[in-house]
Amino acid sequence: MTPLLKVTGLTRMYGNRVGCRDVSFELWPGEVMGIVGESGSGKTTLLSCLSARLEPTAGTVEYDTRAEGLQDIYAMGEPRRRLLMRTDWGIVHQNPRDGLRMGVSAGANVGERLMAVGARHYGEIRAQADEWLRKVEIDGDRIDDLPLTFSGGMLQRLQIARNLVTHPRLVFMDEPTGGLDVSVQARLLDLLRRLVTDLGLAAIVVTHDLAVARLLAHRLMVMRRGEVVETGLTDQVLDDPHHPYTQLLVSSVLQP
Ligand SMILES: Nc1ncnc2c1ncn2[C@@H]1O[C@H](COP(=O)(O)OP(=O)(O)OP(=O)(O)O)[C@@H](O)[C@H]1O
Ligand SMILES: [Mg+2]
User: Which of 47, 49, 209, 226 has a beta carbon 3.0–4.6 Å from 20's, enabling a disulfide?
Assistant: First the structure.
């Protein structure tokens, strides 16, 4: 079996400062990988490099393209990379405003992604947008409303619908529940977990919230100062952490 993503020696410097350093791992189809670590540990930098939005200083990110097998995403050229981002990948931003078009309706936000992969039939696009709004628990009668009129939780669910409507194989999420009320977070997590399982999605989820990691991720990478200090199955890492930094991270969450 071929991994979906093969990351080798990935390093990103900001001048002399380390963003992330020498990260290597493989992600398998249908697998959810969590990236955890304190603020400034390099999570967003790594995610941006993985999702073709930030060129690494060294190392490679290879993706299993359907046509040609594993391909270095930074060597393949802009048009093919853009096509991948539109078809095979989804990106859920921490701030839904970064992933949505606030000036067009909820239905258009979802429909636009379909049109980007070639859908042309208005009735079908609208029907699919309607179906996806329901899947993310947004009432069908909001389809013509602007996202500006949505709550934070609704915006995040709309962003998820916009990403998943084209059935990507791999979704990148940066703090998908950050900035939301606890009750809203719980509902969103539950929805995300269900969708990821139902669609057999592979995902990379950045979070500083270990409860989110526990609920969504099969496997965890723990980062500190740009480097991966521990990796393993989620329950193992959280219940029996080996690295002192992970022990600290886990215990500081458990303490009242
Ligand atoms: N654009 C940038 N220019 C210079 N340094 C940067 C830039 N972005 C990030 N860094 C530095 O790279 C390191 C990793 O930052 P990064 O944002 O990836 O961490 P993070 O784990 O996502 O943190 P947070 O949990 O606060 O989002 C930090 O030392 C940060 O100061
Ligand atoms: Mg970050």
Answer: 226
